Amino acid sequence: MASSPTPAPAPTPAPVFAIEDLHVSTVGDNPVEILRGVNLTIGAGEVHALMGPNGSGKSTLASTLMGSPEYAVTSGRILFQGDDITDWSTDVRAKAGMFLAFQYPQEIAGVSVLNFLRQAWSARKGIDLSMLELRLSIMEWMTRLDMDPSFADRYLNEGFSGGEKKRNEILQTAILEPEIAILDETDSGLDIDALRVVAKGVREVQLSRPDLGILAITHYQRLLDELKPEFVHVLIDGRIVESGGPELSHKLEAEGYDAWQ
Predict the structure, then answer these.
(1) How far is residue 246's CA from residue 27's CA, in Å, rounded to a whole number?
(2) Does pLDDT of 12 surpass 80?
(3) What residue spans define the domains of the chain?
(4) Could you report the per-residue pLDDT of 35-66, keeping only the tens digit for each?
């Protein structure tokens, strides 16, 4: 009797996010190359930390990943869920499920947090929620993020403290349900108590979205102590010069960046 054929192995799913040999320059008459061949892959549910000194290209990378017109990709490509998005506009990337938490969130006078999230949700999902449905969802998440419910009706980031602005970014991550969240120096300007609240918020989002990929960009070990990434990368002079596990961040904390410069 002939044996049954061995079933073919299931195809390996594409990573949530992949950066392949990315070279990036400023735009204008005298372009300056900032990123010089960055490679990075993020799988579903993985938390990656990117560390580096000032001027290494961290924020340039974050802005480029979201399609900022201030920078030009001169070679390499960016893949999101297997699709080449290198030429996609910022709004298309956001609708597809990419989210950037800004280092310095902007104030938007005249637009409440609730209205902003309603418009962003409609653009992201293609569904119009009633104000009541959205308010109920926001109130639930504000409780989980230790936010005052009155913030839903305040103008976006207007009069917010640094910690409140960063928690509002995490609230947006929770409501918009992206596939990849890029946290650009979320710890910037926060004291340790505010940092812990923000990190707790990120963990709350992870509990609800276990497949969420996270790229946390930071200078400091203290954020990583709270987020506990599985992968740490060192960016120096526009290149990732070393990758490893959490132990790499402790080496950086103890020795600084001199070993790679």
Answers:
(1) 35
(2) no
(3) 17-104+178-260
(4) 999 999 999 999 999 999 888 999 999 999 99
Q: Which residues contact 28 (CB under 8 A, 6 or more apart)?
A: none
Question: DSSP secondary structure string, the chain?
Answer: -PPPPPPPPPPPPPPSEEEEEEEEEE-SSS--EEEEEEEEEE-TT-EEEEE--TTSSHHHHHHHHTT-TTEEEEEEEEEETTEE-TT--HHHHHHHTEEEE-SSPPPEEEEEHHHHHHHHHHHHHS-PPPHHHHHHHHHHHHHHTT--GGGGGSEETTT--HHHHHHHHHHHHHHH--SEEEEESTTTT--HHHHHHHHHHHHHHHHH-TT-EEEEEES-HHHHHHH--SEEEEEETTEEEEEESHHHHHHHHHH-SGGG-
How much is the average pLDDT of 202-209? 90
Does domain 17-104+178-260 fall into CATH 3.40.50.300? Answer: yes
**In terms of pTM, does the model score above 0.85?**
yes
